[in-house]
Design a protein that fits this description.
Length: 213
Protein backbone atom coordinates (compact mmCIF):
# COMPACT_ATOMS: atom_id res chain seq x y z
CA UNK A 1 0.00 0.00 0.00
CA UNK A 2 2.81 2.46 0.82
CA UNK A 3 4.22 2.05 -2.69
CA UNK A 4 0.83 2.36 -4.42
CA UNK A 5 0.88 6.14 -4.81
CA UNK A 6 -2.86 6.22 -4.13
CA UNK A 7 -4.57 8.88 -2.06
CA UNK A 8 -4.90 6.70 1.04
CA UNK A 9 -4.64 7.64 4.71
CA UNK A 10 -3.18 5.03 7.08
CA UNK A 11 -3.23 5.23 10.88
CA UNK A 12 -1.07 2.84 12.91
CA UNK A 13 -1.94 2.62 16.60
CA UNK A 14 1.42 1.48 17.91
CA UNK A 15 1.02 -0.45 21.18
CA UNK A 16 4.44 -2.07 20.67
CA UNK A 17 2.96 -5.58 21.03
CA UNK A 18 0.33 -7.74 19.33
CA UNK A 19 -2.39 -6.36 21.59
CA UNK A 20 -5.45 -8.02 20.09
CA UNK A 21 -3.98 -11.54 20.30
CA UNK A 22 -2.66 -11.51 23.86
CA UNK A 23 0.33 -9.17 24.01
CA UNK A 24 2.99 -11.12 22.14
CA UNK A 25 6.30 -9.48 21.28
CA UNK A 26 6.57 -8.02 17.78
CA UNK A 27 9.13 -6.13 15.72
CA UNK A 28 7.62 -2.98 17.24
CA UNK A 29 8.44 -4.09 20.79
CA UNK A 30 11.30 -2.04 22.29
CA UNK A 31 14.51 -3.57 23.53
CA UNK A 32 14.41 -4.92 27.13
CA UNK A 33 10.61 -5.25 27.26
CA UNK A 34 9.15 -8.48 28.60
CA UNK A 35 6.28 -9.88 26.54
CA UNK A 36 5.01 -13.24 25.39
CA UNK A 37 7.77 -14.90 23.34
CA UNK A 38 10.27 -12.50 24.95
CA UNK A 39 10.28 -13.61 28.58
CA UNK A 40 13.95 -12.73 28.95
CA UNK A 41 13.46 -9.21 27.59
CA UNK A 42 13.49 -8.43 23.87
CA UNK A 43 17.17 -8.40 22.85
CA UNK A 44 16.81 -6.28 19.69
CA UNK A 45 15.66 -2.68 19.12
CA UNK A 46 12.25 -1.58 17.94
CA UNK A 47 11.61 -1.48 14.19
CA UNK A 48 11.49 2.08 12.84
CA UNK A 49 8.41 1.95 10.62
CA UNK A 50 8.40 5.69 10.01
CA UNK A 51 11.96 5.74 8.71
CA UNK A 52 11.20 2.81 6.43
CA UNK A 53 8.19 4.66 4.98
CA UNK A 54 10.23 7.83 4.41
CA UNK A 55 12.56 5.97 2.06
CA UNK A 56 9.77 5.91 -0.54
CA UNK A 57 10.09 9.68 -0.81
CA UNK A 58 6.45 10.24 -1.78
CA UNK A 59 4.72 9.12 1.43
CA UNK A 60 3.60 11.61 4.07
CA UNK A 61 4.78 10.26 7.43
CA UNK A 62 4.12 11.52 10.94
CA UNK A 63 4.90 10.19 14.39
CA UNK A 64 2.54 11.53 17.07
CA UNK A 65 1.68 11.13 20.74
CA UNK A 66 -1.50 13.00 21.59
CA UNK A 67 -0.88 12.87 25.32
CA UNK A 68 2.48 14.56 24.82
CA UNK A 69 1.53 17.29 22.36
CA UNK A 70 -2.05 17.29 21.12
CA UNK A 71 -1.65 20.30 18.82
CA UNK A 72 1.12 18.46 16.98
CA UNK A 73 -1.17 15.46 16.53
CA UNK A 74 -3.97 17.63 15.13
CA UNK A 75 -1.58 19.33 12.70
CA UNK A 76 -0.27 15.98 11.48
CA UNK A 77 -3.79 14.64 10.88
CA UNK A 78 -4.78 17.75 8.94
CA UNK A 79 -1.64 17.59 6.78
CA UNK A 80 -2.11 13.87 6.16
CA UNK A 81 -5.72 14.37 5.09
CA UNK A 82 -4.76 17.19 2.71
CA UNK A 83 -1.81 15.33 1.17
CA UNK A 84 -2.54 13.93 -2.29
CA UNK A 85 -0.95 10.53 -1.94
CA UNK A 86 -0.27 7.90 0.68
CA UNK A 87 -0.10 9.23 4.22
CA UNK A 88 1.00 7.27 7.28
CA UNK A 89 0.51 8.41 10.86
CA UNK A 90 2.09 6.33 13.62
CA UNK A 91 0.48 7.10 16.97
CA UNK A 92 1.92 6.04 20.31
CA UNK A 93 -0.82 4.03 22.01
CA UNK A 94 -0.56 2.91 25.61
CA UNK A 95 -1.77 -0.60 26.34
CA UNK A 96 -2.61 -2.69 29.39
CA UNK A 97 0.26 -4.97 28.33
CA UNK A 98 2.69 -2.18 29.28
CA UNK A 99 1.80 -2.58 32.94
CA UNK A 100 1.17 1.09 33.66
CA UNK A 101 -1.46 3.11 35.48
CA UNK A 102 -4.00 3.47 32.69
CA UNK A 103 -5.75 6.36 34.46
CA UNK A 104 -2.68 8.58 33.93
CA UNK A 105 -1.52 7.03 30.67
CA UNK A 106 -2.20 10.09 28.51
CA UNK A 107 -0.05 12.39 30.64
CA UNK A 108 2.59 9.66 30.85
CA UNK A 109 3.05 9.95 27.08
CA UNK A 110 4.83 13.26 27.68
CA UNK A 111 7.48 11.44 29.73
CA UNK A 112 7.88 8.91 26.91
CA UNK A 113 8.62 11.75 24.48
CA UNK A 114 10.85 13.62 26.96
CA UNK A 115 12.97 10.48 27.35
CA UNK A 116 13.38 10.12 23.57
CA UNK A 117 11.70 6.72 23.49
CA UNK A 118 9.12 8.23 21.13
CA UNK A 119 9.84 11.01 18.63
CA UNK A 120 7.45 13.60 17.26
CA UNK A 121 8.03 14.46 13.62
CA UNK A 122 6.40 15.11 10.25
CA UNK A 123 7.80 14.15 6.85
CA UNK A 124 6.03 16.10 4.08
CA UNK A 125 7.16 15.23 0.52
CA UNK A 126 5.65 18.43 -0.92
CA UNK A 127 8.29 20.49 0.88
CA UNK A 128 10.96 19.09 -1.42
CA UNK A 129 9.39 20.96 -4.33
CA UNK A 130 9.79 24.17 -2.34
CA UNK A 131 13.47 23.45 -1.80
CA UNK A 132 12.87 22.67 1.88
CA UNK A 133 13.81 19.70 3.99
CA UNK A 134 10.75 17.42 4.11
CA UNK A 135 11.52 16.21 7.65
CA UNK A 136 10.50 18.38 10.58
CA UNK A 137 11.52 17.17 14.04
CA UNK A 138 8.90 18.49 16.43
CA UNK A 139 10.22 17.60 19.88
CA UNK A 140 13.20 18.84 21.83
CA UNK A 141 16.34 16.94 22.72
CA UNK A 142 15.55 14.14 25.20
CA UNK A 143 15.96 15.34 28.79
CA UNK A 144 14.99 12.25 30.79
CA UNK A 145 17.01 9.03 31.01
CA UNK A 146 15.13 6.06 29.57
CA UNK A 147 15.45 4.30 32.92
CA UNK A 148 13.15 6.88 34.50
CA UNK A 149 10.29 5.97 32.19
CA UNK A 150 11.02 2.30 31.51
CA UNK A 151 10.91 1.36 35.16
CA UNK A 152 7.47 2.90 35.53
CA UNK A 153 6.24 0.03 33.33
CA UNK A 154 5.88 -3.54 34.56
CA UNK A 155 7.08 -4.92 31.23
CA UNK A 156 10.54 -3.57 32.04
CA UNK A 157 10.44 -3.90 35.85
CA UNK A 158 9.72 -7.62 35.58
CA UNK A 159 13.10 -8.24 33.99
CA UNK A 160 14.91 -6.10 36.57
CA UNK A 161 13.45 -8.31 39.30
CA UNK A 162 13.97 -11.70 37.65
CA UNK A 163 17.24 -11.11 35.79
CA UNK A 164 18.91 -7.95 37.13
CA UNK A 165 22.18 -8.43 35.25
CA UNK A 166 20.41 -8.93 31.92
CA UNK A 167 18.14 -5.97 32.67
CA UNK A 168 21.12 -3.73 33.38
CA UNK A 169 22.77 -4.72 30.09
CA UNK A 170 19.60 -4.23 28.05
CA UNK A 171 18.87 -0.90 29.75
CA UNK A 172 22.28 0.39 28.69
CA UNK A 173 21.63 -0.77 25.13
CA UNK A 174 18.15 0.78 25.16
CA UNK A 175 19.63 4.14 26.15
CA UNK A 176 22.14 3.81 23.31
CA UNK A 177 19.26 3.06 20.91
CA UNK A 178 17.53 6.28 21.94
CA UNK A 179 20.70 8.36 21.68
CA UNK A 180 21.59 7.01 18.25
CA UNK A 181 18.09 7.44 16.86
CA UNK A 182 17.82 11.01 18.13
CA UNK A 183 21.17 11.95 16.60
CA UNK A 184 20.19 10.40 13.27
CA UNK A 185 16.84 12.21 13.10
CA UNK A 186 18.44 15.45 14.21
CA UNK A 187 20.96 15.13 11.38
CA UNK A 188 18.29 14.30 8.79
CA UNK A 189 16.08 17.21 9.89
CA UNK A 190 18.97 19.70 9.81
CA UNK A 191 20.36 18.93 6.37
CA UNK A 192 19.91 21.37 3.52
CA UNK A 193 18.64 20.17 0.17
CA UNK A 194 20.71 20.82 -2.93
CA UNK A 195 18.95 21.66 -6.18
CA UNK A 196 19.86 19.05 -8.79
CA UNK A 197 20.12 19.82 -12.50
CA UNK A 198 18.96 16.33 -13.41
CA UNK A 199 22.32 14.68 -14.20
CA UNK A 200 23.25 13.72 -10.66
CA UNK A 201 25.15 16.93 -9.96
CA UNK A 202 23.98 19.74 -7.71
CA UNK A 203 23.61 23.31 -8.88
CA UNK A 204 26.79 24.19 -6.97
CA UNK A 205 28.70 21.45 -8.81
CA UNK A 206 27.51 22.80 -12.16
CA UNK A 207 28.68 26.30 -11.26
CA UNK A 208 32.13 24.96 -10.38
CA UNK A 209 32.39 23.11 -13.68
CA UNK A 210 31.31 26.23 -15.58
CA UNK A 211 33.88 28.40 -13.84
CA UNK A 212 36.65 25.92 -14.65
CA UNK A 213 35.78 26.09 -18.33
Amino acid sequence: MLASGRNVNILVMDTEVYSNTGGQASKATPRAAVAKFAAGGKPSPKKDLGLMAMTYGNVYVASVAMGAKNEHSVKAFLEAEAYQGVSLIIAYSHCIAHGINMTTAMSYQKDIVDSGRWLLYRYHPDLVGEGKNPLQLDNRRPKLPVEQTMYQENRFKMLARSKPDAAKKLLKEAQADVNTRWQMYQYLAARQLEISNGNGHSKADAEVVTSVK
